[in-house]
């Protein structure tokens, strides 16, 4: 199973990687830390699952270019690329914010899935709130991984 994890926060990325490798040992993980890198990965390679943060920098840190521009809803660009490429890639959004900015509107995480379908015809499997005090996100991600 090939999983693309798009996450720029090292702590959260490490937690996601540990969880994924704990659940299954047949997983190959590709990591992207920016919108630009994730769009390239989606367009050039096939993945069985996308685990996506929504708040991402525009591009990776590169010499002479500096840090990428923070994008509160940068993950939507990755979802648009999946849609454009007509890829049937199960997608799980994992964010540490209770709301996600979509079309200049703050959408509660509980409504993001429906909003993406209604506004953009983009389907995601689930949206999870990453919180180390409430491990609901990890239980749900474990369930999804075990079922594949």
UniProtKB/TrEMBL annotation:
SUPFAM superfamilies: CheY-like
UniProt xrefs under PROSITE patterns: RESPONSE_REGULATORY
Residue positions where 4-aspartylphosphate is found in the record: 53
Span of domain Response regulatory: 2-133
Keywords of the record: Phosphoprotein
Domain of life of the source: Bacteria
GO biological process annotation, one example: phosphorelay signal transduction system
Protein name: Response regulatory domain-containing protein
């Amino acid at each position: 199973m090939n999983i693309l994890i798009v996450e720029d926060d090292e702590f959260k990325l490490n937690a996601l990687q540990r969880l994924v490798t704990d659940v299954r040992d047949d997983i190959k993980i590709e990591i992207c830390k920016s919108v630009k890198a994730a769009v390239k990965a989606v367009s050039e390679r096939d993945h069985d699952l996308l685990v996506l943060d929504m708040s991402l920098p525009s591009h990776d840190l590169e010499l002479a270019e500096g840090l990428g521009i923070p994008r509160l809803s940068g993950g939507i660009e990755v979802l648009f690329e999946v849609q454009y490429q007509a890829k049937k890639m199960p997608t799980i959004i994992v964010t540490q914010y209770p709301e996600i900015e979509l079309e200049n509107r703050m959408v509660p995480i509980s409504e993001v899935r429906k909003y993406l379908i209604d506004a953009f015809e983009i389907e995601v499997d689930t949206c999870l709130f990453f919180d180390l005090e409430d491990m609901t996100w990890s239980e749900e991600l474990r369930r999804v991984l075990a079922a594949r």
